[in-house]
Design a protein that fits this description.
By secondary structure, this protein is an alpha/beta fold. The chain is built from 4 helices and 7 strands; from the N terminus they run βββαβααβαββ. The termini are far apart.
């Protein structure tokens, strides 16, 4: 008997790789949580890189390992900027609205509404224009908090005061309310 897969993509918007990725919903399979009600973790990161409906990437691997260890059985990934690129600096090459993506705020709202826990995990700007990055992260945080959502972070804040990016989570890093 072959081992069960460790993840199953439930939804990817859009399903086919495209210029934008608005949402990626992954069920963490291969555990007793497969058939029981399970907590959903929404993770808001910086911008999507390679993970999509058919492949994972190092960040998704780290986040999924952390989530399993902490009892989650599904993750919904969304991002501050929906423009898809392995290089965050690509966000600087287009206008602000184009970097965010026309459907992104709706995808973030939908992901947060479906979550038991919401984790801000966008990390430092890493080459994205600092003013653009700070404005977008503050706008998303303000909107979610005004809507009544409690934001969390994993581990310590970065030196610049941002919530640690999922690629830099280790399995034992604790979940904290981000205030």
């Amino acid at each position: 008997m072959s081992p069960r897969p460790m993840r199953a993509v439930v939804e990817c918007v859009p399903w086919q790789p495209a210029r934008y990725r608005y949402l990626l919903h992954v069920a963490l399979t291969g555990s007793e949580r497969d058939t029981a009600p399970h907590p959903v973790l929404t993770v808001i990161q910086k911008n999507p890189s390679l993970a999509d409906a058919t492949r994972s990437d190092p960040t998704a691997g780290k986040v999924e390992a952390w989530a399993r260890r902490h009892g989650f059985a599904a993750i919904i990934y969304v991002n501050l900027f929906a423009l898809r690129s392995p290089d965050p600096c690509a966000v600087n090459d287009v206008g602000e609205a184009e970097a965010i993506g026309a459907e992104n705020d709706a995808a973030i709202a939908r992901a947060c509404a479906a979550a038991d826990v919401i984790v801000a995990a966008w990390g430092n700007p890493n080459g994205i224009d600092a003013a653009r990055y700070a404005a977008r992260s503050a706008a998303v945080r303000r909107h979610l908090e005004a809507t009544g959502y409690a934001l969390h972070r994993v581990g310590a804040l970065t030196r610049l005061g941002f919530p640690r990016h999922g690629l830099h989570w280790n399995g034992s890093a604790p979940l904290h309310r981000w205030r």
